[in-house]
Amino acid sequence: MTTPEFIVVSTTHDAEDKAHALAAAVVGAGLAACAQVCAVGSVYRWEGRLRTDPEWRIDFKTRAALFERLAAFVTAEHTYDTPELIAVPVLAGSPAYLDWVRAETAG
């Protein structure tokens, strides 16, 4: 299987304003063409305890070649000790949309 050209990278944040600021910073840096911020309810284990908290998920649309740079940027800017960073391959998409993602992340 070949490596896909495009990916969606997800992370979460504990505050809506921080999530929007991080999304804007990543897109502004040219590391993603766009980002969506959505409210979610998260259930997870942290430091031996089961937690349930409101969070805001950020999905970044970008090129796979930019994952390491995007991950380093998010890790440096994030307030979490261990921020979620998961990349999912884009196997297909509208040619015009993918051309736009490519153009917006070409720098």
TrEMBL record:
Pfam families assigned: CutA1
Source organism, top-level taxon: Bacteria
Molecular-function GO term, any one: copper ion binding
UniProt keywords, alphabetically: Membrane, Transmembrane, Transmembrane helix
GO process terms (BP): response to metal ion
Membrane-spanning intervals of the chain: 20-44
Keyword Transmembrane included in the entry's annotation: yes
Entry similarity comment: Belongs to the CutA family.
PANTHER family, per database record: DIVALENT CATION TOLERANCE CUTA-RELATED, FI09726P
Protein name (record): Divalent-cation tolerance protein CutA
Taxonomic classification: Bacteria, Bacillati, Actinomycetota, Actinomycetes, Kitasatosporales
